[in-house]
Request: fold
Amino acid sequence: MPHGLLNLNKPAGMTSRQVVDIVQRLVRPLKAGHAGTLDPLATGVLVICVGKATRLIQYLQQMPKGYTGTFLLGRTSPTEDVEGEVAELSGPPVPSREQIVAAAQGFRGQIQQRPPAFSALKVAGRRAYDLARQGKQVELQARPVTIYALDVVRYDYPELVLRIECSGGTYVRSLGRDLAESLGTAAVMSALVRTAVGPLALQEAIDPRELTGENWHKHLLPMTHAVQSLPRVELTAEDLARVRNGLAVRDPRQCSDAWQSWGDEIAALDPQGELVAILGPRGQGWLGPVRNFL
Reply:
């Protein structure tokens, strides 16, 4: 049966769970799962993993993401976006484009970010947004995220459009919140488009409503797209037989001058270039399957 990734363009107003449900109905009995939630307000790249590829979700979640975020300055909301009750500040400062560009420079690189109270993160075993909806005080700990790019695309007060490239786990709403606070004002997010997840770009994404029982498998991308950051090795027929049985194989890095630059995990491919396993160290000179797709 086919296994792989679907690069979908989530429509506004649809939850990520609803997109998964569309795919799940088509691919049964295979499993389906998304690799990073988009809020109903947001549109853009939502990667759905099908079959064995669901075991690669964590690798996709760790990939850099691209976004175009639209914000309204001089406003606050408990959800940090227009989905919540928006309140306008009284006489807030109106920063210039130059001031915004200068402030944005301070948010590039690794920063500490406090996630929004209305998020899916868990607090004492419960979703933060469930507690926040009950009116309970939710204080989430700041955590490190990396901002690779933060550029002003368009600015016509109060609307500010930003292009963002960031690490997995970054909350764009909170980035707008913090940028506005650094300028002595506030901001709510009014629109969000996810333009990329790693190598998967919006230009190639398809509308989930266009999928059918006859065509969905034609849009599947190879599982190798999920592990592009990992070094790769091609296994021999003998190695494939060993890995299939959960056995270790000789570490090819022992024969490579470049092995010291490799990480602990390696993507193992068959002669056709299909991902068959993720290998990890099993003692001196040996690698064994961490995830086995055979």
Observations:
- Residues 16-27 form the longest helix (12 residues).
- The helical segments are 16-27, 57-61, 97-105, 128-133, 172-182, 237-244.
